[in-house]
Every structure is written in structure tokens, then in C-alpha cells.
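user: At home tonight, take the chain set out below, taking as long as you need, and be ready to discuss the fold:
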Amino acid sequence: MDQRGRRLSAVRPVPLPRVGAHPGPAVWNNLEVFKLTPAELEPVITGLRDGVAGKPEVNLEERQEAIQALVMARMGADPAGQPPAAAAPAPAPATPAPAGETAPR
């Protein structure tokens, strides 16, 4: 169903142009946050096909928390939404000894 409650099969498809703009890059842009490997991409493609066919096998509302945790993990934050802990600051460089003095050994 679309946002208006119509079955997707009832919506007349608009053909994609043979050359030029198509939605692939826009879809990938939305998926980029997941940092998918080629193996992880396959079930995503299957889900896209199922959705287009009007037969999604996964209830998105039930999986939302797991999806959010995956996004946060891939971004390096914990599932509570906190950014990764900052690395300890590097120690300050040693100051050179004043002219005419030698540094302690």
C-alpha cells in the first residue's frame, strides 16, 4: 500500500528513463548509513523486491529497534545514541630546555 492506502499494483508505473536520472543513487544514499557489505546487500535487495511486489515479509514496526541499533553500531555510537567515547588526549610534547642548559637524562 502507498501512503494514501492504495495498493501499489493499482498505481500506474512511470517508466524510468533509458539514460540519465534513476532512483538507484537516491536509494543507495539512504542505505549508505548501514555501511553494507556485498553479502549484507543481498537480503536488502530481496526486501526491496518484496516491497515492490506488495509482499513484505518483515514488519518494519517490529524491527525498528533492531534497525536503529544496527545504524548506531555502524556509525560507532552505542544503541542509546551516545557517540563513541573520545580517545584519551595525547600527552603534551616536552618543552625544550632553555638555551645553555641540557635536558635531564
Remarks:
- The two ends are 76 Å apart (CA to CA).
- Residues 22-75 form one domain.
- The chain has a mean pLDDT of 74.
